[in-house]
Design goal:
The chain has 3 helices and 12 strands; from the N terminus they run αβββββαβαββββββ. It is globular. By secondary structure, it is mainly beta. It starts with 13 loop residues before the first helix and ends in a 9-residue tail after the last strand. The structure holds flavin mononucleotide.
Length: 173
């Protein structure tokens, strides 16, 4: 007899689940912010995605255990720095805890004094319009207030590794 009850799903092996999720290729961003006290925050993140064009809304998620979480919430704004291919070192730098991740990093101030990294494929300045704990992460929603982009090739991430894209245009036909 068919049941309306949802099937119980055994808890997946986290490493195997990560492998499955990792088949989805993404770009690589460093999400930056400045707290009201002036502390600069930066975290490498590939959870960035777009949600809506009108109004322009984006999302990303930060681990609940991140020491930067309270700061991002207090900042009220964030910048999505979409990394260019030659910015692999920045992706690695902002993926590890450090006393000052910004030391020696070429950076300017955005419209609301948020850090904007130089040389990125795109920078998207956002005002936080929602932050919601979901499982072991907090989901941030941001409304875009300003953006810029360049023709530089973006850094990619897939199968747990940094990648460079190869256009398929020549294979079509
Ligand atoms: C390619 C890549 C993507 C990542 N994406 C995320 C992400 O979307 N959210 C997150 O919380 N951590 C992500 N991380 C891990 C953080 O960058 C890392 O935990 C970092 O130390 C967080 O900064 P914090 O120590 O200041 O919290 C990613 C790491 C890499 C290498």
């Amino acid at each position: 007899m068919a049941s309306d009850q949802p099937q119980a799903f055994p808890a997946p092996d986290p490493l195997d689940l990560r492998r499955a999720f990792g088949r989805f290729g993404t770009g690589v961003t460093v999400i930056t912010a400045r707290t009201p006290e002036g502390q600069r925050l930066g975290v490498t993140a590939n959870s960035f995605n777009t949600v809506s064009l009108a109004p322009p809304i984006v999302l990303w998620s930060l681990a609940l255990h991140s020491p930067s979480l309270a700061g991002f919430r207090a900042a009220g704004r964030f910048v999505v720095n979409v990394l260019a291919l030659e910015q692999l070192a920045l992706a690695q730098r902002f993926a590890r805890p450090a006393p000052d991740k910004f030391a020696g990093v070429d950076c300017s101030e955005g419209r609301h004094e948020q850090p904007v990294l130089a040389g990125c494929a795109a920078s998207i300045e956002c005002r936080i319009v929602g932050d919601q704990p979901v499982g072991d992460h907090v989901l941030f929603l941001g409304e875009v207030e300003h953006y810029a982009h360049s023709a530089t090739a973006p850094l990619l991430f897939c199968n747990g590794q940094f990648q460079q894209g190869v256009g398929l245009a020549d294979r079509q036909g």
